Amino acid sequence: MSYSLPEALSPFLSITEVDHSTPFGQKIFRRKYRQEPPDFEKHLVCFFQDNYGAYHVAGYSHMTPHGDVYLSGGSCTDGDVIRLMSEKQRELVSAHGGILHHILKYAFAKYAGSCRAFFGHCGDARAWEVVMAVGFVPTEHQYLIAHWHQPIDDAEKAALVAKINAIGAF
Fold first, then answer.
1. pLDDT tens-digit profile of 52-70?
2. Domain spanning 13-165 has what CATH number?
């Protein structure tokens, strides 16, 4: 399964998986989390192409395979890059859900066949709106969210939530 950006965004945005966070996600990850991004596979980057053809990292996230689920973490966007967009481009991005919305939709489409569910941690109010809009749901644990893209009975959901909650923040 693949994900395509809305036609209105595809002329200036693209999303892809990269092998390493450096150099793509490192700058915005450091700024947001004040640490180095993780050094493992499955880094997702949203690129903005400016009017001169140069590419800028507008958003970053990583997906960590963990048994039969994926852990979604490190999601961040770069306000400086978003300000490079024209007013019309910013309006289009906003009208279509924002950068994070599309990175997550891309991840769900790309990795859905590889896992039973996606989990994340979210404590930011703006990000909360986005993650709920793309299909994450709260769990009984503060900040822990789940995206159930396959039919899973309640007992298995509870077991997965308990397993992931035991990890702590990721």
1. 999 999 999 999 999 999 9
2. 3.40.630.30
